[in-house]
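Internal ticket - ligand job 255, adenosine-5'-triphosphate:
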Amino acid sequence: MALLKVEKLSKSFSGLKAVSNLDMEINKGELIGLIGPNGAGKTTAFNLLTGVYLPTDGTITFQGRKMNGLPPYKVSGHGIGRTFQNIRLFDDLTVLDNVKIAYHQHVSYNTLTGILRLPGYFKGEEEIEEQSLKYLKIFDLDTKADELAKNLPYGQQRRLEIARALATKPSLLLLDEPAAGMNPQETHSLMELIRWIRDEFNLTILLIEHDMPLVMGVCERIYVLDYGMVIASGTPDEIKNNPKVIEAYLGEETI
Ligand SMILES: Nc1ncnc2c1ncn2[C@@H]1O[C@H](COP(=O)(O)OP(=O)(O)OP(=O)(O)O)[C@@H](O)[C@H]1O
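stdout (structure tokens):
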């Protein structure tokens, strides 16, 4: 059974079909790319998958459960985590607090324990801090734990967003242009990191990206959207050589 099955998923904005009849099947452990020109519907697809938008039509099935109509916090609770194209950190909180906030929903102490500050509460807080630092270390951000998020360079903010998404303990992680604004060296190490977190955390990853070396280097399969529709899907080699994709997106120079 596919981990994520998307059938005939559509979303219209006052007549504009942003996503149209999208079919997609992703198996556990896969690393999948979603590419296409600007305005093709990629971010809208992510917003549908995470409950930000209600589909106009179609179904989303995740781990055998229908996800249509669930609000974002419930989708996240079921194990779909994401990052955003426009970084959405809490700018005026520290790097550590940005991760702690995400981790909070997974620690088991009840409200009364929290209100009364019983020993279980402190154990919970300690555990959150320890785990959050662990995530920061993975992304080489542990030495920045006490800095304000807004003071980090752009590439580090992007890594912090991924760390925060991981702290929600997803089984499916959606990354929206993780390499945007990164230099080639940062992009290369991000590519290795994405592979590593997939293996280390048993993740399935779907990523939107315009950086073709990253997509082609890291993804096992790729879906290509154009005007909201899938125009091709396949391995990086199949996609690179697909005339429709070359015409709509990649351009002749990539052949
Ligand atoms: N909330 C909205 N209201 C109206 N139109 C929208 C909304 N969100 C997206 N659109 C439109 O839907 C289409 C798809 O947009 P979307 O952002 O999903 O594309 P994209 O493939 O992610 O593009 P990019 O690569 O530039 O991020 C575009 O024409 C966009 O203007």
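Auto-summary: The domain at 1-79+170-254 is CATH 3.40.50.300 (Rossmann fold). The mean pLDDT is 90.
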